[in-house]
Amino acid sequence: MAIHKLVLDDVEADLYTLVAIHCTLEDYRLAYLLNKFLGITLTRKPSDLDFNNGEFTYSIFEWEDCKQQTLWSLAKNVCKTEVYRQGNNNSLFNLQEKTTKINYLLPEFKKVNYLLKIEDQINLSKQKHILNSILQIPQVATAYSIETNQLKSKDHLIFS
């Protein structure tokens, strides 16, 4: 009797395109401008991406293109949280020090402000058109594609 062995490699390897966006805009403003320049309809999801039981949350906007059967997701890469800790105990007053803790959705890309994930294999000409459209936005400093095989934290990009 023959033995059939199925080997499943990383199925999710290159089934999406990832675009890094550098800009200092608020997330809702960037989503509005992407909608305007790309002709899409990103809307904010009711719940943010949650890591460590609400300790780190990242805003996310999504749009499902029914014609092309693709899902577009815009996620913030930076999460800033304020942490209060007890100050010097030798003081007359009870002081608390406020420090800001910064975490990243993709730690290997710390300078990237936003990530645009398109869950579909896009050809090179369409990818260039999307990048050129994003670069037309005056408030965007730069945008470029990220090779998904370089990512160490791919599991952070599973939004659903």
TrEMBL record:
NCBIfam families: IPExxxVDY. This is IPExxxVDY family protein. It comes from Seonamhaeicola algicola.
